[in-house]
Design brief:
This protein has one domain: Rossmann fold, CATH 3.40.50. Helix 2 (37-43) runs parallel beside helix 3 (63-73). The protein is α/β, with parallel strands linked by helices. The chain has helices at residues 12-22, 37-43, 63-73, 88-97, 110-118; strands spanning 3-8, 28-34, 51-55, 78-83, 101-104, 123-125.
């Protein structure tokens, strides 16, 4: 079964790098991407993703607020948080908002992404 993915990050270069890695994982389909939480919430009216890769720090609406809003309406949506910083409070806030996993951007790998996508448990992937 294919996992439909939306990428939400304000950095275009990072989105491209993440897409490149995700496309190397069997069973993953990237269906959309957004630059911030506002764009992401608009996409949710058009798409039905299984997984969202959500940056924490973004303009207009950050990942924590977007996760809170979407989690209230789609509690089965898997949110995987992304952060360049390993700051505990932001990561903790994203988990409380409804994210299931967290990945530090500077430690991305095909293996970590696969665990986050296909794993069934909470984990910090740092």
């Amino acid at each position: 079964m294919r996992k439909k993915v939306i990428i939400v990050d304000d950095n275009k270069e990072f989105r491209e790098a993440l897409k490149f890695l995700l496309l190397t994982i069997k069973g993953v389909e990237i269906i959309a991407e957004a630059e911030n939480g506002v764009e992401f919430l608009e996409l949710m009216n058009q798409y039905s993703p299984d997984i969202v890769f959500m940056d924490i720090e973004m303009p207009e609406m950050n990942g924590i607020e977007a996760t809170k809003i979407v989690n209230a309406e789609y509690p089965n949506l898997k949110i995987i948080g992304l952060s360049i910083h390993e700051e505990f409070q932001s990561m903790h806030d994203l988990i409380l908002a409804g994210a299931q996993n967290l990945i530090c951007k500077n430690k991305l790998s095909k293996e970590l992404l696969g665990k986050a996508i296909f794993g069934n448990h909470y984990m910090f992937l740092t």
